[in-house]
Amino acid sequence: MPVYQAPLRDYQFILDEMLHIYQQDALKGFDEIDPDLVDAILQGMADFSTEVMLPLNSVGDLQGCKLVDGKVMTPEGFANAYQQFVDNGWPTLTCDPEFGGQGLPEVVGIFATEMQTATNMAFAMYPGLTHGAYAAIHTHGSDALKQKYLSKLVSGEWTGTMNLTESHAGTDLALLRTKAVPVSEGVFAISGEKIFISSGDHQLTDNIVHLVLARLPDAPEGVKGDISVRRT
What we know:
Largest sheet: 3 strands, mixed
Distance between the termini: 43 Å
Oligomer: single chain
CATH class: Mainly Alpha
CATH topology: Butyryl-Coa Dehydrogenase, subunit A, domain 1
Shape: globular
Strand order of the largest sheet: 3-6-7
């Protein structure tokens, strides 16, 4: 039987005695936290990771994802665990309150994520990639894109991915060949092939937001991206 003990005392030491996060009231998101709140959040994630995620780690290793009638199915128990994850509000932890997030400092979210990856890396990839998609759109997306996608990603109703790698372009993304040809205002026809897309398809949610790295017809050297979804 696997055993995991979350290093909560280490987290408390780093946050309080090294980073002094409770003295950073001038920073956004830090003015409404205190040790009791953060300890309760981290304890809650420790409990969820240990009681829900850890037992599924070996299940995921033994079963893996399967293609059933043209649909990708996650290992037994993953769907229920994901629903619990969403119901408990974990996807919202550090996200912008404007889109349904709790607005907590990212440093708190890092430790919550560490417990997830320590107990079940395979499961943690689903919310992890979603948060990456959220962060990219939140930082670089237009207001229209933010309004259309962020609340669903923050709540966990939808998940997200990042489509970067191609068969000939792994780390050197400047070599990518996927193209995005303008069709109308804000709409592009995307052609190309991506590989190794973590969380690329599953039955956990009814929609998946794919951030696709693609090149415009007149694009200069470098990288740009587009959004593609399972359904509009």
